């Protein structure tokens, strides 16, 4: 009569031992590895300055100095076929400090941006930009609706000490929908300072 009771007690003790062992194993494994952080959408820690809203037919003038900008040391993305901003042969025009601005383009408007190097001595400062900017699609980008670049036209080796003439880019695609454009002011290779005047106009 005592055997079933003994077996039952033994079974309970055995179950408790298994439970303690399992709990011990769980404790000794430590915390699970943290989930990997998602890739940053802004690897260069780019800061973007918002240009106040402009009415169609109006313009605003922005002055600055690229000395407060940053260098984007990897420009291959700009030559991708689904970006097509500027070719690899013109990377030297964008290897200096860069400043970033965003501006809204209302439906039915065209955005025209003109840039001049000012001050003495004048420096070789260029433009590029793309539309459908959403705040987090910052360089290096994988694709973009439309990208434009403004730099001196030349054949052969450029004279990067020549400031050149007015740079200009424009976006006329805001026919059916409004867009936001990212506008970038960039020094050429070795140009990390220099004053500029940028006129942003909606037509």
Write a concise keyword list for the protein shown above:
203 residues, alpha+beta, 6-stranded mixed β-sheet, 4-stranded antiparallel β-sheet
Could you explain how this protein is built, in words?
This protein is α+β, with helices and mostly antiparallel strands and 203 residues long. It is 13% helix and 33% strand. The chain is built from one helix and ten strands, in the order H-E-E-E-E-E-E-E-E-E-E. The strands form two sheets. Strands 1, 3, 4, 6, 7 and 9 form a six-stranded mixed sheet that branches. The chain is globular and about 90 Å long.
How is the topology of this model organized?
Layout: H1 2-28, E1 48-50, E2 59-65, E3 70-71, E4 97-105, E5 109-118, E6 125-131, E7 147-150, E8 167-174, E9 179-187, E10 195-202
Parallel strand pairs: 1-4
Antiparallel strand pairs: 2-10, 3-4, 4-9, 5-8, 5-10, 6-7, 6-9
In short, what is this structure?
The protein has one helix spanning 2-28, and strands at 48-50, 59-65, 70-71, 97-105, 109-118, 125-131, 147-150, 167-174, 179-187, 195-202. It is α+β, with helices and mostly antiparallel strands.
Q: Could you report the average pLDDT, rounded to the nearest whole number?
A: 87
Which stretches of 5+ consecutive residues score pLDDT under 50? 25-32
Range of helix content: 10-25%
Quantity of strands, as a count: 10
The main pleated sheet reads as:
6 strands, mixed
Question: How would you name the oligomeric state of the polypeptide chains in this document?
Answer: single chain
| Helix-strand sequence | HEEEEEEEEEE
Instruction: Please give the alpha-carbon distance between the first and last residues.
Output: 102 Å
Overall SS class: alpha+beta
Shape: globular
**What fraction strand?**
25-35%
Radius of gyration: 29 Å
Individual helix count: 1
């Amino acid at each position: 009569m005592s055997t079933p009771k003994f077996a039952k007690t033994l079974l309970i003790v055995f179950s408790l031992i298994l439970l303690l062992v399992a709990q011990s194993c769980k404790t000794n494994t430590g915390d699970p590895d943290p989930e990997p952080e998602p890739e940053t959408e802004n690897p260069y820690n780019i800061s973007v300055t918002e240009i106040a809203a402009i009415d169609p037919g109006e313009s605003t003038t922005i002055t600055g100095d690229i000395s407060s900008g940053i260098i984007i040391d990897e420009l291959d993305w700009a030559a991708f076929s689904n970006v097509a901003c500027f070719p690899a042969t013109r990377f030297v025009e964008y290897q200096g400090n860069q400043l970033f601005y965003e501006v809204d383009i209302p439906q039915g408007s065209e955005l025209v941006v003109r840039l001049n190097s000012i001050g003495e001595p004048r420096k070789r400062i260029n433009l590029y930009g793309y539309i459908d900017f959403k705040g987090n699609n910052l360089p290096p980008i994988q694709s973009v609706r439309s990208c434009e670049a403004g730099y001196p036209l030349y054949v052969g080796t450029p004279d990067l000490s020549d400031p050149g003439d007015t740079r200009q880019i424009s976006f006329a695609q805001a026919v059916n929908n409004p867009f936001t454009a990212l506008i970038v002011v960039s020094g050429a290779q070795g140009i990390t300072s220099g004053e500029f005047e940028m006129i942003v106009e909606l037509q």
